[in-house]
Design a protein that fits this description.
2 domains; 53% helix; mainly alpha; 250 residues
């Protein structure tokens, strides 16, 4: 049975990469030709020894693929037919090459673990083996951008409205620059309560001073957000009295 694809596990590569380029190519070729075409390598070769170690895993994968294409694995009352060689057909024995045993030892250790941890064949596999995404990625680009923009606006709305309430301003949650600052801080793990804390702190410090003009989304939610959030609250500096200003003049 031929296939268009198969699972090439990370453990295959980890074992092959310790070999020379020539042996690497022979092992990979043996596995690929067997998995896709069912072709057996030359007896006694390193490819034959390698395939002997991974064959249970590949056969199990192929069995699951066949069952999936038939609509599921066979019923329990169906006897599995074993293929036996004809009487006039000589059975070929694969004799290991003693010089290759050391090279294959690590391959055997890794793939035995893969076989033991292989998931049960409960899921069906058909020709299209790649899972389909459940999201509607086939929507037009303009529709996706509009949907994402509306979602981000709703995330920014409670923060911007709180700033407007504290500063008597009229900033909009749909402004791209404002959304960029808030989105960046949310991705860093900050919460809406953190935004409100920064707004409260800076309003108490800056309102009624020359710094009041900096009570904007660009300043409060920008790169200094963490500094503002962790700064110790401080009272507003008192206005200097006239007599103090005249000291040293009179």
């Amino acid at each position: 049975m031929t296939r268009n694809s198969f699972v090439f596990y990370r453990s295959f590569y980890d074992a092959f990469k310790t070999l020379t380029d020539e042996d690497f190519g022979k092992c990979a070729r043996a596995v690929i030709e067997y998995a896709l075409e069912g072709q057996e390598p030359q007896p006694g070769s390193i490819g034959c020894l390698t395939l002997g170690l991974v064959r249970p895993l590949l056969d199990k994968n192929n069995k699951r693929y066949e069952n999936g294409c038939k609509g599921g694995r066979p019923n329990g009352n169906q006897a599995e037919t074993k293929e036996e060689p004809n009487g006039n057909q000589a059975e070929t024995k694969e004799e290991p090459n003693p010089n290759l045993n050391d090279k294959c030892k690590m391959i055997n250790d890794k793939w035995e673990k893969d076989i033991e941890s292989f998931p049960p064949s409960s899921e069906k596999i058909c020709a299209a083996e790649a899972p389909r995404s459940t999201e509607r990625d086939d929507l037009p680009k303009s529709t996706r951008e509009k949907r994402d923009g509306e979602s981000l606006t709703e995330k920014c709305r409670p923060i911007v409205e709180y700033l407007n309430e504290r500063t008597s301003s009229n900033y909009r949650p749909s402004t791209k620059a404002t959304q960029a600052h808030i989105s960046a801080r949310l991705k860093e793990g900050y919460t809406i309560d953190d935004f409100k804390a920064v707004i409260d702190r800076k309003v108490n410090e800056w309102q009624g001073t020359d710094y009041e003009r900096f009570l904007t989304p660009d300043t409060l939610f920008g790169t200094k957000f963490e500094k503002y959030l962790n700064a110790k609250p401080r009272s507003r500096a008192p206005e200097p009295k006239v007599e103090h200003l005249l000291d040293g003049i009179l």
